[in-house]
Known about the structure:
By secondary structure, the protein is of the alpha/beta class. 35% of the residues lie in helices and 23% in strands. The strands form four sheets. Strands 3-2-4-1-10-9-11-15 form an eight-stranded antiparallel sheet, covered by helices on one side. A seven-stranded antiparallel sheet has the order 5-6-7-8-12-13-14, with helices on one face. A hairpin with a 2-residue loop joins strand 2 and strand 3. Helix 2 packs across helix 3, helix 7 (271-283) packs across helix 11 and helix 11 runs antiparallel to helix 16. The protein is globular. The site of 2-deoxy-2-amino glucitol-6-phosphate (AGP) has 16 residues, from helix 8 and helix 14.
Amino acid sequence: xxxxxxxxxxxxxxxxxxxxxxxxxxxxxxxxxxxxxxxxxxxxxxxxxxxxxxxxxxxxxxxxxxxxxxxxxxxxxxxxxxxxxxxxxxxxxxxxxxxxxxxxxxxxxxxxxxxxxxxxxxxxxxxxxxxxxxxxxxxxxxxxxxxxxxxxxxxxxxxxxxxxxxxxxxxxxxxxxxxxxxxxxxxxxxxxxxxxxxxxxxxxxxxxxxxxxxxxxxxxxxxxxxxxxxxxxxxxxxxxxxxxxxxxxxxxxxxxxxxxxxxxxxxxxxxxxxxxxxxxxxxxxxxxxxxxxxxxxxxxxxxxxxxxxxxxxxxxxxxxxxxxxxxxxxxxxxxxxxxxxxxxxxxxxxxxxxxxxxxxxxxxxxxxxxxxxxxxxxxxxxxxxxxxxxxxxxxxxxxxxxxxxxxxxxxxxxxxxxxxxxxxxxxxxxxxxxxxxxxxxxxxxxxxxxxxxxxxxxxxxxxxxxxxxxxxxxxxxxxxxxxxxxxxxxxxxxxxxxxxxxxxxxxxxxxxxxxxxxxxxxxxxxxxxxxxxxxxxxxxxxxxxxxxxxxxxxxxxxxxxxxxxxxxxxxxxxxxxxxxxxxxxxxxx
Length: 589
Ligand code: AGP
């Protein structure tokens, strides 16, 4: 939620650099945006409501400056207005602040500041930080004032401040992502690497509860003690183009198509590492998979895969609910977190709880160096490359691939698992051709005006039905729900009326007959049956053929639904990359 970005260096186009970086972070929040840049020793501001992607920096270059910060907002406190858009400034207009996260004690702080005579121009929690900082600056130097301010804040946040009369950036994180980019005598601080990837691939990670001061070079400090900390510069291997749309109209379709390659990349792991982690799972006194949203559906699907392939029970709990389950955790418990971003607040909180109870943590994540990566005992990187569309696609299938591999490894069948997934990757490559896309486009045109649709599946395809529903909801805004096929007759079948589209995810296994029977019951009530299946059936009104991937069927079956959701979004004139009300990385609870 919210993208934040700062630049300090010799380039006099600091403001323009911020705007172009914010465009790369827009997937994190896109209801309003703003930039603050130093003009001599004062802050100048530009704030707008709407998407920064629509702003043309070439036609409207910002005045020269060498120090600037910016923000792309996903509103938490206060409506979507220019006044509430960040940055926020102090009354003397020397300090500007941007912030991602929530300051939980902002009401008390704001009350104290109002009593001292500070005037607030916005309804945000963030404005509290800038006035508090300005207040501490009256009796302290900027760095000490920043430390004192940060020590008073409660909640999860990443914050960036500039002070123009001192030409300094102060940045700090407590639970929300923030990374330093190291260029040639220039520095960047951002919520995510794509913001500065066109300038540098060298990064320095800011850990939780740390503050960094950038003037001549970055200096890192522990927030609580003020002690200076040494940091390494790490070179990351992302190509700048991997964070761009290229010839595709949207990131979502680019990322769907990338699944031709991303499964191979995901399973290209060191065998001894996968075997070692399989031993951890086998040796644990209980394993729990946790994730949120799509990642939770991946966990749910993995529980079926572990049962079938590894003959092993793994628990599944959604991240936000996990703290309420903590009492069964032991030191020998293993918690496996699944996350694209590695920054989802609910999952992070669950991991903190697990760690407090002494449990071991394995993360399956896409973003290397993310908070989850750094706080876990073990991590597997799915190597999907930047995923920028809000709707997860390639990360989902890569996470499923890794969990399938682990299940096979637990059954001493790593080679068989790899072979299955390599074959599945080949099948996806063959499937994702222009004719296939056209076939799905035709379906999307048929059903685009329906306001409700349903997805059913059984066994591992039940959580995939839930995931299919999330994809459809997120980008098409059609009311979509997923069900276990067998559950329909216990209530939801009452929702079916003439023509209601119902997608049936049908695997070529022992579940086929049951799902076909469930689809038949829907059809008998007027439903329009869309079969996603390797084989056709008379009951299908529209057949989307998928290759028979055996135990990799969930990975394959979800792809046509991703494509359908995308096509529906475009036909319904929604922006699939930035759906309303959502943000890519949910860093607030
Ligand atoms: C996926 O399409 C969603 N945007 C969302 O449910 C997402 O999967 C969830 O917020 C978890 O994100 P994470 O994988 O980065 O932890």
